[in-house]
Design goal:
mainly alpha, globular
């Protein structure tokens, strides 16, 4: 079936259009908000050691303090499904824009509060409890932000630039990790350890909160998606609990998106978030060098997301998945077997594997169109967040235990999940999905051979 062919119901597809100034504004504001929101979520991990010393008793064993600190970090992951389902539920009923704005507010406000919280020395056990509460709110926010952002942009951009739009947005979201890494490097280079513990650790949280609140204001200038307007005009907005519809009619799509998310979580959590600590603990690479190499890998990841989205529109999502996940399989072994190597090889290999991590952009490209418009937000949010909560939270534990027996555990784990990504590329949902608008050709139908 070609894009120009007559549809089964006799309707003709809407004429193709190109990106206009309104689309670029939508992409820019969505990506900026995603960058700042993901920065707010991950900045915690870059200052986990300092937070552990400040928010727990000084006489607590170091291992227990770190365990509880990372336990609070993990609470953010566990809160993702709840926040995602609730925000997505109202997004499918009342509109994408309202929930899209609410999610960034729910992230910015707790981040600002963390930067202003009194420590254990001032208020005792209330300090870690308040920190836990803020992390839970952040997790709920990020659970609604990422699926909401993907749906918002996917329903706005022209069909022929669908992959590019989502790829650009994903690059903006991952840019939040890069921003967090660069801020952490700058704080630790500019201030002494005593100054960081005294006051400087608060700077990145306060900045994140303030900039996040600015993004809340800027998102007021976004418009509701054309898709939701059409649904509301025809009164096709979900009439029952959207999650009930998803679980009854779209179980296969949920499983598919959940498995894709497992692949995504392995790439992000292992290669980007876990590896700097691995480099320091296992291969005794200096912290500054590890963080700088990680910043380069995160930069190439951001570029890789753009490339994956652009290529998806031209050669098809399946082809991008096969090349991208295959490249991640190969470069993961290249990187981890070459450690510790020299600084030059560390940067070169880490940057290369980071580029192929950018294949994660194919996850929302396939995931958004896996569900019909009336329950799209809920379906994507449920499958994505449930999977990320389980696998994103368990991955560091699995690797920590696995490393006791094999120092190549990160490479094996990433390679196994990259192989799963290759297998998922052969399933029909990789190239075929629901139309962004009713009356348009189903997404990917014209390029099923891809």
């Amino acid at each position: 079936m070609t894009p120009e062919a007559t549809l089964p119901d006799g309707a003709q597809p809407a004429p193709a259009r190109t990106l206009d100034s309104s689309d670029y504004k939508t992409l820019a504001l969505s990506a900026l908000g995603g960058t700042l929101e993901f920065y707010d979520f991950v900045i915690y991990v870059f200052f986990a050691t300092v937070l552990g010393a400040l928010f727990f008793p000084v006489d607590m064993p170091d291992w227990l303090r770190q365990l509880q600190t990372f336990g609070i970090f993990a609470a953010g992951y566990l809160a993702r499904p709840v926040g995602g389902i609730v925000i997505a539920h109202f997004g499918d009923i009342f509109g994408r824009k309202r929930m899209f704005t609410l999610s960034i507010f729910l992230m910015a406000a707790p981040t600002l509060v963390i930067g202003l919280l009194p420590t254990y020395a001032s208020i005792g056990v209330a300090a870690p409890l308040l920190l836990l509460l803020m992390r839970v709110l952040q997790g709920a926010a990020i659970g609604g932000e990422m699926p909401g952002a993907w749906v918002f942009v996917g329903e706005h951009v022209p069909a022929k630039r669908y992959g590019f739009g989502i790829g650009m947005l994903t690059s903006g979201i991952t840019g939040g990790i890069l921003l967090g890494s660069l801020i952490a490097v700058a704080i630790n280079r500019h201030y002494s350890p005593d100054q960081v513990s005294d006051f400087a650790w608060r700077i990145p949280f306060v900045l994140g909160g303030v900039f996040g609140l600015v993004s809340v204001y800027l998102r007021r200038f976004l418009h509701e998606t054309p898709v939701f307007k059409e649904l509301a005009g025809r009164r096709s907005v979900a009439r029952e609990l959207p999650l009930r519809t998803v679980l009854r009619e779209h179980r296969l799509a949920c499983v598919y998106v959940a498995l894709l998310t497992w692949v995504l979580s392995a790439a992000i959590v292992v290669v980007v978030l876990y590896t700097p600590t691995y480099l320091q603990k296992v291969h005794h690479i200096p912290a500054a060098l590890s963080l700088e190499a990680n910043a380069l890998a995160t930069l190439t990841l951001t570029l890789g997301c753009m490339l994956a989205g652009w290529a998806s529109d031209r050669v098809g999502t399946r082809t991008v998945m096969l090349v991208g996940w295959g490249g991640l399989f190969a470069t993961a072994y290249l990187f981890y077997t070459g450690l510790p190597g020299t600084p030059a090889t560390l940067f070169w290999h880490y940057g290369l594997v980071g580029l192929f991590v950018g294949t994660i952009a194919t996850v929302p490209i396939a995931g958004v169109r896996a569900f019909p418009a009336p329950v799209r937000f809920t379906g994507l949010s449920f499958a994505y967040n449930m999977s990320y909560a389980v696998f994103g939270g368990l991955t560091p534990v699995i690797l920590t235990l696995w490393l006791q027996h094999d120092t190549m555990a990160p490479a094996h784990y990433v390679a196994v999940l990259a192989a799963l990504g290759i297998l998922l590329a052969f399933l029909p949902l990789a190239v075929r999905g629901h139309a962004m608008r009713d009356g348009a050709a189903p997404a990917g139908r014209a390029t099923m051979s891809r």
